[in-house]
Amino acid sequence: MKRSTNRDLMVLTALAPMVELLLLSRGLRVNTSLVHVCVTLTCYQAGYLVADFVRRLGQNTLRPVTAGLMLLLGVSLIYWSWIFTAVLALAFSAALQAWRRSLKPASSVTPKKKNTMKAIGMAAGGLGALPNPVVIGACLTASVVLLIACRSAVQFTKVDPAAPTPGSALLLLGESVHHAHYFAYAYVMWARIAHLPLPLMGMLFIIGWIGYFLAEYLVRDRHRIFSPKAMALGHAVCSAAICAMVFTTSLAPTMLLWFTTGLAGGTAFMLGNGPQHPNRERFEDLGHVVGIGGAALVLAPVGTPVAALWLAVVLAAIAAAIFVAVPTNAQPLSRR
What we know:
Blueprint (H helix, E strand, L loop, with lengths): L1 H28 L4 H21 L4 H20 L3 H22 L7 H15 L6 H18 L18 H18 L15 H20 L7 H18 L5 H15 L14 H23 L3 H20 L11
Helix pairs in contact: 1-2, 1-4, 1-5, 1-6, 2-4, 2-11, 3-4, 3-6, 5-8, 7-11, 7-12, 8-10, 9-10, 9-12, 11-12
């Protein structure tokens, strides 16, 4: 049973970033308003916030619902109506994450496997920029896989939250702002790149995440590190790199800066080693919505993607300041 649970979890883990980038690449291809794209992706991220409520439906309901919504999303991507697509994105994301969170307690997927599946999903996200038959074909295939192949049975279990550990409140705020800074620029920056090969956007997206994963892999297998100062320095570097993005629209330097933000922002993996709070996942999800929603708000009156980049610069700097303020007596949970 655990093997099938692991398989299903990996499929869902790949599907989440795939749909996320399908929405982005399709929105950029049809040349719709960037504000509309950001609102659609805000709805997609809002699905994470309500997923825990949707979990109560159970997998027997979530499986056909998620598969059906996947197919409807494929149709909406072809006949792009951003309001309809945004509503479907919210519903699909909530169902997918509810299903995924139901599987997580019973699975044993390693971080490396999880990150590999994320990368595969990202790479497929560029399909949204290809002709209509490819888009609907990809969504139909995903729908069939969800309906037929993913059939592991795990019942909903309510887990009582653990008590917060000392020093976790400030880190909770830092984590939320960390995610907000990322989502404020990670979608919008692609609209500024001159001569961007949209079908390859998913492959290029992985470049930043290689840096993010690398920051963790370089040290995680050796030490259980928790250093607020290192996280502060990383986010200061992020702020500077995003600032540099404002002054270029060329692909190569933007990708170098994208990798740099991933490597520097990847220091946030240390948050998992520090004092913990039971609402950590909820605040992480909130940071997603605040980041991309904030990008939509600053884009609406200005109309230029640069405004969202400046928002990310400020948020990264705020995250750095928060981590600097973490008390020195906020000790990690354990060391190896």
